[in-house]
Each structure stands twice: as C-alpha cells, then as structure tokens.
UniProtKB/TrEMBL annotation, chains A, B:
Binding site for substrate: D40, K62, S153, Q220, G240, R241
Alphabetical list of Pfam families matching this protein: OMPdecase (PF00215)
Reaction(s) the record says it catalyses: orotidine 5'-phosphate + H(+) = UMP + CO2
Keywords: Decarboxylase, Lyase, Pyrimidine biosynthesis
InterPro entries found in the cross-reference section: Aldolase_TIM (IPR013785), OMPdecase (IPR014732), OMPdecase_AS (IPR018089), OMPdeCOase_dom (IPR001754), RibuloseP-bd_barrel (IPR011060)
Descriptive protein name: Orotidine 5'-phosphate decarboxylase
Example GO molecular function: orotidine-5'-phosphate decarboxylase activity
Amino acid sequence: MPSAHSLSYAQRAEKHENPAARLLLETIIRKESNLAVSVDVTKSEDFLAIIDAVGPLVCLIKTHIDILEDFDYGLIKKLEELSQKHDFVIFEDRKFADIGNTVALQYSSGVHKIASWSHITNAHPVPGPSIITGLASVGLPLGRGLLLLAEMSTKGTLATGGYTEEAVRLARANKKFVIGFIAQRRMDAVGLAHGDNEEDDFLILTPGVGLEVKGDGMGQQYRTPDEVVRQSGCDVIIVGRGVYGADFKNVEAIRARAEKYRQEGWNAYLKRVES
Amino acid sequence: MPSAHSLSYAQRAEKHENPAARLLLETIIRKESNLAVSVDVTKSEDFLAIIDAVGPLVCLIKTHIDILEDFDYGLIKKLEELSQKHDFVIFEDRKFADIGNTVALQYSSGVHKIASWSHITNAHPVPGPSIITGLASVGLPLGRGLLLLAEMSTKGTLATGGYTEEAVRLARANKKFVIGFIAQRRMDAVGLAHGDNEEDDFLILTPGVGLEVKGDGMGQQYRTPDEVVRQSGCDVIIVGRGVYGADFKNVEAIRARAEKYRQEGWNAYLKRVES
C-alpha cells in the first residue's frame, strides 16, 4: 500500500472506519480546505464572532472551551449551530493527560461535557494505554475520534525520540478510536520494527503554522503551510491569531486572511498528491 | 547538606521560599498529617460533604474541579471556607499540558479561574520550559506553587528514564515556582551530572496509595503509605476512594478511614526521620 499521504483525501475517506475521521476527510473535500482555525479567546462573543467569520473557509474549528470566562452550556448550542451552518468539524484541544478513570470523567462530565459536542479531542500518551481506554469508553459509543500528541511544536519539548515512537505504537494498538496525531510530520514509519508493514492512515494535524510570524515569545515556533503539508506530509494546518488577528469584528479582514491560508494549504496538498 | 527527606518537615519549612510550599509544610506539622485526599466526584454536594468529613485529618485536598457537573463559582467560596475551617491546602490536579500562552489562560481564566483559589497546581513537562514560564506568569505573583509530573503511577507510562530526568532539570531551573513533583520516589539524584551538588528540596506528592486495594482496573497501581513515605522518601500520600468509599454521607466511616491513613502516613514519616 502506498503511504497514506500520497493518496487523495477522497481515497482516504472511503477507507476510514472511524466516523469522526471520515467526517473530517469528507469536510476537507467538500470545502477544499485543510485549514483549521484555533480560536483562543476568553469571551464567548469574540469566540462566536471569529467562528462565524472563518466558518465558510475551514474544515475544522479547534477550541479551548476552558478559557472562556463567560461559558455557559447555551454556548455549545450556538457552536453546534455554526458547525451546521458552515459545515465544519469541532475539535476540543483538551490535551487530556490523566489516568483512565479521571479522563473518562473529564471527557464526559463537568460543566463542559466535551464528549457530547466535540467530534474530535486529543490526549497526551504520557500516562500509557489507560488514557486511551478511559477516553474510548466514553467517546467510541458516540462516534468520536482521538488524536494523540506524538510531538509538540514548542522549544525543548520532551515529546521526541522514544516518546514519539511509543505514542505511535499506542495509536496503532487502538486504531478504532485513535484517528491520528498532533504532530509536525508523517508518523507512518515511526516506531515500526524492521520488516513491519502496517497499513496505517493516521491523520496529521499540525499546529504552529504561520505565513509570516516566527514565534510568540512563549516558546511556540512556526512553519509555513507548504513546509507542513507538501514537504512534511501533514493533513490539516492549524492557525490561530495569524487568521483572526486582534480585531475580532473585522469579518472581511479575517476572511481574507483565512482564504489566504486555505489557498496555501490546499495548493500545498494538490502539489503533494500530484508529485 | 543532608538529603531533604532526612530532615523534619519543620526544618524544611524554614528554608522554603515559595509561599505555597511553606504553607503545605507548616500545615503538615500543625496537623501531624501528610495525608492528602483526592476528591473525584461529579456532584458539588458530594464534593463538599467529603471535604467536610476528611478536612480535620488532611494537610491537603486535591481537586478535579472540571469533573463537577453542577459547578458554579459559588462552590469555590464554600471550598475556601472549608479550607479555612479545617486548615488544609488546596491542590487543583489540572495536569496542565499545553503551550505557555494557552496554559496561562487555562490557569487564570475560564469558568474555573484555578489560579485565584488553588494554592498548588501541577503540569506535565512535555511541552518544555514554556509551560512553566506561562504558568509562572500567572501563579508567581499570587504566591502559588507548581508540581511537575516527573513520573506517573499508571502501567506503561512514558514518564520514565530521560523524560523523568528532563522533568527534574526543568524543575531545578525554575525553583521559585516549581516546588516539587508528583512522583513515586525522591528526585534528589535524578538528572544530575557526576559531581553536581544541588541543594534541592522538592516536595514529593505521591498518588496511587492504598492500604488494601491493588488496582482500579483502568491502569492505576497502588502502594502502601510505608512503602511510599519511609522506603521511597515521599512527603505526601494522596488517597482517593480508599478514604471516602462509596457512601459520602457516612462521616464516621470516612473519618475512621482517613485517620487510619493519617496514622500510617505519619508513622512512616517518623520512622524515616528517626532512622
């Protein structure tokens, strides 16, 4: 089998068994967009305004629901309405990182009830297999998908080498629920013993993407859509402030920037599958 | 300097600069208790009932505020009142694990506003130094302290070897804010180059402690207070359901179990410093 990233999104959508993975791939195809926007604001009004602005141009909205200081559950209904209106997938970037019992509660319960509305969430593999078991006990019956953090884009991250390999092995052992990685490159060959031939198709969602900026002064490092999608074979680019800027009411400017990222990301993908 | 765990809690309290570390050590001394109770329930009523029951016997209450489904900020006031009434330290076991900018928002903002009430919180070192910078920017001005997860008690954890060593190095480089570790043993010699002689006094808080049970079926493994405090030199034992059981209204039974753990933990400490 050819490596997943040489296939088209459409070919990959057909083969994926996990409903959330399939939904994401089909949304990418419908909208010709592998752009995800990460909405990192603390007020619900800004949160909804940004999502309504970028909605038509993205395949996915990434949320940090726990930074919204005026959160109430009514917001979730509005988020779901926007998801229907603009046709995007929701990914709560919770970075679960606890033992199985605890993450099952954090995922299903609390004021945020993440599992009930977020198609995709993510977790650090650091606790070992129990974190996947715990999350899957909640998410699989709901048709959700999980991304593992195999790498991070921050300076001095400990998610390297053997850690990354072990993350990929954990994903392979839990393919029904683990649909891919937050990472900076393909993971197809990572953690395989010599002679192994796994037919994986893990989705790679990549943060730390920018067209201009080089860092945020707090350890975040940036790469361009072409580097990420064409050169490194990643599937979805995640952009934050680079798209929505500082004026959340300027819909036109936000859409113009989102469209620029969408084009760059999509062209990088077209070049990748043509080559 | 002798290794920190051969000193008494009182000797160590005098030397600690971080206010949260000092508060914890002084509370341990006042109450002759190195017992922390982890309150992992989803209803505010049960949460407060358990804390009121165990409060007199613990040095610290560990919370997962994000699993409370009926959370509202009024609960925090009640938690703080109990903390005053029973004299215990609050530790929100948030396991922050994101980049600096994001954790700063998660710590200070959202509906939970953790930094404003939790004396101590914790983080995974996996993102690298930026997670400490981000959290310290919020927590240090408030006199808070951070624990790093250098190890985990779950089966198959990736927090081993070089990962653990790097976690300890990160802590040493950030001693003003990082007051210790969630771990299963002393970290004094970990990650030191040959000939280094660091005068560290990191507090070791240890989950996975039980008197009888051996596991929760979801990857958690248990050790006794004596193994943890006397043999491994840890400072605080963290116990959950082993103390509060399944009947949250049975104050007497809960207190009896807490008292048993308190005695076991304290005796293990006395044996340690006497030897």
